[in-house]
Amino acid sequence: MKIFSLLSPFFLLVTFVACGTTDSNQKAKQEANNQIKPLATKNLKNAKRAYIAGGCFWGMEELFRKQKGVLDTEVGYIGGDNQNPTYDNHPGHAEALEITYDSTATNFREILDYFYRIHNPTTVDRQGNDRGSSYRSAIFYQNEAEKKIAQEVIGIVDQSKRWDGKVVTKLEPYVKFWPAEEEHQDYLLKHPNGYTCHYERFGSFLDRKE
Questions:
Q1: What are the CA-CA distances from residue 163 to residues 80, 110, 171 (Å)?
Q2: Is the pLDDT of residue 188 over 70?
Q3: Where, by residue number, is the active site (predicted)?
Q4: Superfamily for 8-190?
Q5: How far is Cα of residue 132 from the mean position of the Cα atoms in its chain?
Q6: Those residues with Cβ within 8 angstroms of residue 210's Cβ, 6 or more apart along the chain or in another chain
Q7: Where do the domains of the chain lie?
Q8: Does residue 63 sit in helix, strand or coil?
């Protein structure tokens, strides 16, 4: 899984067993193919994209793909130094998620709200067992409007004091998103027992009234 040198031999054993090509995993892969959400073409005229990073992209995708208004998800690399990055060679790139969403059903603010509920935005270059700039918390804004919304949501999250510490999410201008290898797409649908450090910690920050 991620940065194997940091993990114990026991955890490595568990991880490799969980990701092996057993009959149950083969069955899971088939079920995953049946569950992958087809892009809702009727909503394409209202489709927008968002680019975020918050640790291992496997867990991020698994949670976001189920959210209201999300039409499609794709994991990949963004914000780094090289062209055509790969899982084994992506210096400076973050493991990121491209979210295609129906702008009549959700919006950028709500996407960021959920983002801050499922990953710890107060740890620099770290998420769960994963360490390094690949696992930084980042929002890749495509225009000044998105940057402003990101700043506003970060302020709301900090004011809530739900997290122990200040948000350290980097706001980086979007340049190019490079899709990851097919084996990483919809990974936790294919490997239900695979590694993840993402889960819902809180309810919406936007609903909080104080």
A1: 28, 18, 19
A2: yes
A3: 56
A4: Peptide methionine sulphoxide reductase MsrA (3.30.1060.10)
A5: 16
A6: none
A7: 8-190
A8: helix
